[in-house]
């Protein structure tokens, strides 16, 4: 079994490949893809499905849906989740029929001990702009956001040792915040504006990853017990 240090060293090697320059012009943003995965076990093996839902950014209508299913052979190692998931992500991206301008992942990007959450790792590998939107905080540092105002679109930067790692964003009043971080080729301000646009009244998470999450439940239910 490959050890944790092996994956951490690979993450350290990739840090210099992160593009921190913004390449997204919101006025020209056409397609956004939400990416999510779900896991299950069958016998002594672990499987997952990766679902990608591509939306029209302007009206948030669904353009296409694709998914892949496969065995997961990389062990779960905290902080190294991208290595478990990227293989299926890449496989599913290859099925897409539309060009994607921006990928949004259900998880972290730059908000990671080595700035290498799935959104960043995949953004580098795909050479595409990407954003991470996590529903919970990955507690690798002591960060307090309890003073975040209970107002729609209020936010607070997550600063660790003087560096901005991401942003806590409350998308609606009286809901739990989400944790936004750049993946690749986008600024945190632009990422925040894009995410705010894609949150509807009935959910606190952006529709691309919401739809992808809903799709993973459907696909997992279809395949559980059959592989």
Overview of the molecule:
The chain has 227 residues and is of the alpha+beta class. The protein has a single domain (20-223), classed as 2-Layer Sandwich (archaeoglobus fulgidus dsm 4304 fold), CATH 3.30.2170.10. It has helices at 4-14, 81-93, 118-126, 188-197, 207-223, and strands at 31-42, 45-56, 62-71, 102-105, 130-134, 154-160, 163-170, 178-184. The longest helix is centred in the C-terminal third of the chain and has 17 residues, at 207-223. The chain is globular, with a radius of gyration of 17 Å.
List keywords for this structure.
globular, archaeoglobus fulgidus dsm 4304 fold, single chain, eight-stranded mixed β-sheet, 227 residues
Give a short overview.
This protein is α+β, with helices and mostly antiparallel strands and 227 residues long.
Topology:
Blueprint: H1 4-14, E1 31-42, E2 45-56, E3 62-71, H2 81-93, E4 102-105, H3 118-126, E5 130-134, E6 154-160, E7 163-170, E8 178-184, H4 188-197, H5 207-223
Parallel strand pairs: 1-4, 4-5
Antiparallel strand pairs: 1-2, 2-3, 5-8, 6-7, 7-8
Helix pairs in contact: 2-3
Mean pLDDT across every amino acid position: 96
Query: Any idea what the CATH architecture is?
Result: 2-Layer Sandwich
- Predict the CATH topology: archaeoglobus fulgidus dsm 4304 fold
Radius of gyration: 17 Å
Structural class: alpha+beta
Number of strands: 8
Strand order in the sheet with the most strands: 3-2-1-4-5-8-7-6
Largest sheet: 8 strands, mixed
